[in-house]
Amino acid sequence: MAIFKKVKDWLGIEGVKVALAIDETFKLKEQEIRGSYSISSQSDQYIESVQLTLKEKYIRGRRKAKLIDEYVLNESSVDIGESITEDQVITREFEMAFEPLKSGIEKWGEKNVLYKGLTSVVKVFKNAKSSYSITVEVSVKGNKLKPYDTATLVAD
């Protein structure tokens, strides 16, 4: 039975779980995202660190001409260095500042009011959209597979 416990610990089965608690909508102009994550476990484990990643997925074009780029807007790592016991929950809040990326057409649209109106028409014509996601990943001592959670965000 000890071998099964080692395999389960190595794969993270019945081990550490992580959950994000974050608003689905955020204001792009604020350039900051706030939320929290909760780490729980069904067995005694040692939490080494937590990594948070904010990504933007920029999609433009249609059908075969569709192009997709993914950009990392912010990435941060927090050293936890704590043991977690069975049924214990560790909750931490976070704030992530980021600089929104602007496409060439958006930069052109900022030149004056007339260009700004044309920019929105061109974005609709080119089917240009951005979507955002945040991922939290926990590094657990002795585990090869890291538990993670991802949330999709909508910019206002």
| E-strand count | 8
What is the gyration radius calculated from CA atoms? 20 Å
Q: What is the first-to-last residue Cα distance? A: 53 Å
- Outline the biggest β-sheet: 5 strands, mixed
Low-confidence stretches: none
Question: In the CATH scheme, what's the topology name?
Answer: Immunoglobulin-like
Instruction: Specify the CATH homologous superfamily.
Output: Immunoglobulins
Helix-and-strand structural type: alpha+beta
Total helices: the number is 3
Could you tell me the strand content as a percent range?
A: over 45%
Average pLDDT across residues?
Answer: 86
Looking at the overall shape, the CATH architecture is: Sandwich
CATH class: Mainly Beta
**Overall domain count:** 1
What is the spatial order of strands in the main beta sheet?
A: 2-8-7-4-5
Overall helicity: 10-25%
Q: What report would you give on this structure?
A:
By secondary structure, this protein is α+β, with helices and mostly antiparallel strands. The protein has helices at 2-11, 104-109, 113-126; strands at 16-22, 25-26, 32-41, 45-60, 67-84, 89-97, 129-140, 148-155. It has one domain: Immunoglobulins (Immunoglobulin-like, Sandwich). Helices cover 19% and strands 53% of the residues. The strands form two sheets. It has a five-stranded mixed β-sheet with strand order 2-8-7-4-5, with no helix packed on it. The longest helix is centred in the last third of the chain and has 14 residues, at 113-126. It is elongated and about 70 Å long. The termini are far apart. The mean pLDDT is 86.
